[in-house]
Amino acid sequence: MAITLYELVGRDTARPFSPHCWKARMALRHKGLDFSTATAGFTEIPEIEGGVSKIVPILRDGERLVADSFAIAEYLEETYPDRPSLFRGEGGRALSRFVESWSQRTIHPAIARFAVLDIHDGLAEADQLYFRQSREKALGTTLEAFVADRADRVEPLLASLEPLRAIVSKQAFLGGESPLFADYIVFGALQWARIASPFRFLPKGDPVTAWFERCLALHDGEGARVPAAA
């Protein structure tokens, strides 16, 4: 069956940047599955597959449609059990839920303080108005004001990564010697920042930086194929 992954892009359709789409893309590579990608801007998402979801990623596998990155990972695990496991059992699935909760409540908000204006600037013109209006309403301020003090927010973010740092300084991945979906969850957040914004915050020599670089090299350099924002 043909597999298609729908991903979020900006003006440059060769640069998918959504953290959730990267989780799904890495999960597909982890499983060793062949797939094609289709792209959409923010305002095009409601048109995908007849409006099946308000969010991406969306996976089409033959006649099956699955939305949400974690649901996609669970679907791949259940549908292709003979391929490398994303969770290595129910305990790994539950722990991945915890990692996702931590990432989305700790890392994502911090990265938004760095990158939200750069994300806007990289969007197609048709999406910029939607993005600015929706984000400024949610944030209660302008995008420019929201990122104005981002340099002062680097140290707090690096400190918040200490749980990850403590693990990957002792082992290659959260999954041990090889990655699991938990790795792709956090990788997706940092890849979002790498692709969407030229603002750099991971210091050289940090174990988190070394882990991120290992993740970029996974699956024949899948993550590294999209250059960092310049």
Automatic annotation (TrEMBL):
Recorded superkingdom: Bacteria
InterPro entries documented for this protein: Glutathione-S-Trfase_C-like, Glutathione-S-Trfase_C_sf, Glutathione_S-Trfase_N, GST_UstS-like_C, Thioredoxin-like_sf
Coiled coil: none
Domain GST N-terminal: 8-84
Pfam families given in the database record: GST_C_7 (PF22041), GST_N_3 (PF13417)
GST C-terminal domain mapped to chain residues: 89-230
Gene3D superfamilies: 1.20.1050.10, Glutaredoxin
Protein name, per record: Glutathione S-transferase family protein
Organism: Jiella sonneratiae
